[in-house]
Specification:
By secondary structure, the chain is mainly β. The protein contains one helix and 22 strands. It has one helix at 23-28, and strands spanning 49-57, 62-63, 66-67, 71-77, 82-87, 97-102, 112-118, 142-148, 153-158, 169-173, 179-182, 205-210, 216-221, 241-247, 252-259, 275-284, 289-298, 302-311, 335-339, 351-356, 365-371, 381-388.
Length: 392
């Protein structure tokens, strides 16, 4: 479905790489943004996801004097019966924050906001934005969020502040936003000023999963480290993304596996214009099995969303391998769960958050997915709810 055409986005808006790069020009040429169009799925629909509801928030909705949007992470708090929604605003419109909202028995009526939690920096106070950057302190780029049931605290990732020399990070904050700690991460995630190794800007810690026992978390890279291989193209898969398991008691990485994202399944309507694919979120099915959401975009063609299942045990530990290459590791095998183009949504957008909600009356799990609109009027903040059926 084609999105309504809105006035041009002001140059000062904090738009990011998936803000329909070149999209305004393509619209001017008469090309539509085919939000539901994706390449043929790699396998027939499995029937494991059933659409239950779809709703949207208005563009740049105001919630407690903040501009809502850029929703990149979501989790459910069963005690309070509310969802936590992390914004990836880099403190440009308001300091780093997450929203709370209720979506009871999901319907096509949008979730109701209930509050804003400001995630504070070490020592207290708001994180500064890029225009007020403080020496020695990164400007976080929030991407993924999980609530720890045993502690009531929030785990959240940042893709880092690569241009200023700060790598991606995993933080823990109180439910009220107080900063508690930053986890020590392997040296491979440190940025390299020469750009010969390490994380690529804006392509690092996009996903975060919590094991059911609440003892460890998995951090998922969106694309490969520079030394591990290239980003995907329309003809070739990307280099392996590293998924790192962190022991939450010790705060240290204990294991790491490789996951290979698909080639970009869409082709830009104008050859040579922007297209990408990568991991946008991960979610544990049980102690070892994980859902992996791959999100792609191609200028003028729209988005593709494919959900895969992997078993973290069926891959080699690559934590000690400096550079991944064919033959020196076994990546995780993946099985298609669903191509979202087959699920009956009104459109596909830049979906980056995924969580389990409360159990459905029939005993199936509720899977909730939210999209990051990049604060762009040509995109949407979309909430989608599905009934999930596990494989036999």
């Amino acid at each position: 479905m084609r999105a309504p055409i809105h006035p041009p986005v002001p140059p000062s808006s904090p738009l990011r790489r998936r803000v329909l790069v070149g999209g305004a020009g393509l619209l001017g040429l008469g090309f539509g943004l085919g939000g539901c169009r994706s390449a043929a799925p790699p396998a027939p629909d499995t029937g494991r996801l059933q659409r239950l509801a779809e709703a949207r928030w208005a563009h740049r909705r105001s919630i407690e004097n903040t501009t809502a949007g850029g929703l990149s992470g979501i989790d459910y708090d069963p005690i309070k019966g509310e969802y936590l929604l992390l914004s990836d605003d880099r403190s440009d419109l308001a300091p780093v924050r997450c929203y709370t909202a209720q979506w009871l028995l999901p319907t096509d009526v949008a979730p109701e906001p209930t509050g804003v939690v400001q995630l504070q920096r070490p020592g207290g106070g708001p994180w500064p934005g890029r225009r007020q950057a403080v020496t020695g302190l990164p400007v976080p780029d929030p991407e993924a969020l999980r609530l720890r049931p045993s502690t009531g605290t929030l785990l959240w990732t940042s893709e880092g502040d690569i241009a200023r020399g700060f790598g991606p990070a995993l933080h823990e904050s109180g439910r009220d936003g107080r900063f508690l700690r930053e986890f020590a991460l392997p040296a491979m995630f440190a940025p390299d000023p020469t750009q010969r190794r390490g994380p690529r800007d804006n392509l690092s810690f996009e996903g975060l999963a919590l094991t059911p026992d609440d003892r460890s978390a998995w951090i998922a890279m969106e694309n490969a480290l520079i030394q591990d291989g290239p980003v995907p193209t329309t003809s070739t898969p990307g280099g392996p993304c590293r998924f790192t398991q962190v022991d939450l008691s010790t705060g240290h990485a204990v294991r790491q596996i490789a996951y290979v994202p698909d080639a970009i399944p869409l082709r830009p309507l104008v050859p040579g214009t922007y297209a990408d694919n990568g991991v946008s979120e991960v979610l544990m099915l049980d102690a070892h099995r994980m859902l992996v959401l791959e999100r792609a975009y191609a200028t003028g063609a729209g988005n593709s969303l494919r959900l895969y299942e992997i078993d973290t045990r069926a891959a080699d530990d690559v934590l000690a391998i400096d550079a991944l290459s064919p033959g020196n590791h076994r990546p995780a095998a993946k099985t298609l769960v669903a191509d979202f183009a087959t699920l009956g949504l009104s459109r596909l957008d830049n979906s980056e958050g995924m969580c389990w909600g409360p159990l459905l009356p029939d005993g199936r799990r509720l899977l909730v997915v939210v999209s990051d609109d990049n604060f762009n009027p040509l995109q949407v903040t979309q909430f989608a709810a599905f009934a999930y059926t596990d494989r036999p």
